[in-house]
C-alpha cells in the first residue's frame, strides 16, 4: 500500500459541520518530520507512517488551515487518496 509523502495532494474530510471534503497537501510525513521541531514542541509528532500533517485548502479569504497527525480513513477528520481519473 502506498504511503503518503510530503507534497502529495490528498482529500481531507472535515471534522465539523457538514464534514466537507477538501483538497489538502501533505506538509510532513514520517520521513520528513523534523525530530528537532518535535523535541522542542514546535511540531506535533506523528502516531504512525499512515499519519500526516496537512494544509487543507478552503474557498474564501482564509485560504486554508493546518491539521496535524491526521490518520487515513473514511471518517470525519481523516485523509484519503483522491480517485484516479
Strand and helix layout:
Layout: E1 9-13, E2 21-28, H1 35-40, E3 52-57, E4 64-70, E5 79-80
Antiparallel strand pairs: 1-2, 1-5, 2-3, 3-4
Please characterize this protein's 3D structure.
The chain has one domain. With 85 residues, it is mostly beta strands. 7% of the residues lie in helices and 33% in strands. A 5-stranded antiparallel β-sheet has the order 4-3-2-1-5, with no helix packed on it. Strand 1 and strand 2 form a beta hairpin. The longest helix has 6 residues. The chain has 1 helix and 5 strands, in the order ββαβββ.
SS elements, strand count: 5
Class from helix and strand fractions? mainly beta
- Mean pLDDT score, rounded? 94
- Write the element-wise H/E pattern from the N-terminal end onward: EEHEEE
- Helix count? 1
Outline the biggest β-sheet.
5 strands, antiparallel
Coarse morphology:
globular
Instruction: Flag low-confidence runs.
Output: none
* Helical fraction: under 10%
What is the count of structural domains?
Answer: 1
Major β-sheet strand ordering: 4-3-2-1-5
Strand content: 25-35%
- Radius of gyration equals 13 Å
Distance between the termini: 19 Å
Essential attributes:
single chain, 85 residues, mainly beta, five-stranded antiparallel β-sheet, 1 helix, 5 strands, 7% helix, 33% strand
